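Holo prediction. Input below; ligand is pyridoxal-5'-phosphate.
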Amino acid sequence: MLHARATVREELLDEVFASTDLSVSMPKYRIPEKEHDPRHAYQVVADELMLDGNSRQNLATFCQTWLEPEVHRIMDLTVDKNMIDKDEYPQTAELEARCVHILADLWNSPDAANTLGTSTTGSSEAAMLGGMALLWNWRARRKAAGKPTDKPNMITGPVQICWHKFARYWDVELREIPMEGDRLLMTPAEVLQRVDENTIGVVPTLGVTFTGQYEPVKDVSDALDKLEAETGLNIPIHVDGASGGFLAPFTAPELVWDFRLPRVKSINTSGHKFGLAPLGVGWIVWRDVEDLPKDLIFNVNYLGGNMPTFALNFSRPGGQIVAQYYNFLRLGRDGYRKIQMACYETAMYLAEEIAKLGPFEILYNGDPKLGIPALAWKLTEDVEHDFTLFDLADRLRVRGWLVPAYTMPANRQDMVVQRILVRHGFSRDLASLLMDDYKVAVAHFDRHPVTSPLTEEEAGSFNHS
Ligand SMILES: *Cc1c(COP(=O)(O)O)cnc(C)c1O
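Structure of the complex:
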């Protein structure tokens, strides 16, 4: 009897939430004096993360929020591996090199076996590297011609923030083509208006952040070919394929945007977006060895030999790279195509359903020939509405959905849009449940018209990540 009671007591002491550790609130901004039981500390941290909200209902992000159990296991296997230690972990280095070749091949490199490229932490680091290569090459050309190198510029459409960073950090003038009226993308004519001898490169985006649409890489390239024929100005292209680089090869193979165009010198993509890898991996590949300036390359020891590296970071986890390789092997072209097409079909289904509701005008409906598996819409113009898209976004949060509303960049800051990214794991069934909630939210404003609309900040501003 006595013995049994002691056991019960011990078990109770062992119970996480009744423990002495958890009967008080934990210190938050100072390291505690004493250690805590790992189970207790884990519970506290895990519970706090619960307040973050559910990433799979985050329809704002481009990044993976669902991963196969095998990917979780690979991440576990590799949590201790530093990808920069090429000598200690030569096989991880080998898998990285294979991924570069696979991407070069997917992007129709003329010589995929001899291409140069690297993994990065994401498209942002890859964009820095791509931009630097353009800048270094331009400087070398200018110096060789005895011309000044103090006023470099770069031409983009409405771009993701990483290109603003690149321009500011490296002191390059960013000639960002603003949106005008219904034109929300770069066009060849707009590029030609801005190009000059100080242009280090043109950066079209395959999957523009604000709408999801592809910019016309081939048309821009053709226009620059004509410019070269007429003036001798030879302007390289870097494609920001953060999303599209992992989509178009599978879902729009006839779209010519990649190394099939000789003017395309480098391409970046995010492995953790439609590459279906877990967060923390991007890629950049150069067309030719000559497109990557030699003095940007550092050599590290690798199996007693030299391994060229070009990166901003040093220590970095190897797991995401290994998971990327796993995905290539696991899915093949067919698997990627099936997964991405399922996402496109769900995007087009949502676009149809939202259009049917009446007060909305679809800007992009998720057509795989025109952009990424996403949709963007606005409120119909010239009609009074009982709510703004900010109010609607706020209302949807009641059910945990994050469907961002935001203003467009220059010169359409007057236009408010709402956007959904359809990713692996956002099933048609979940989409239909979202539509139910969307209708309920719209009906709510029929009964309770908004008299004091929310601002963008109040509705919850977010990053285009
Ligand atoms: C997401 C994104 C980036 C930034 O990529 P990260 O992988 O988040 O660093 C750059 N450009 C475009 C077009 C993007 O969609």
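The first strand starts at residue 116 and ends at 120. That is the main takeaway for now.
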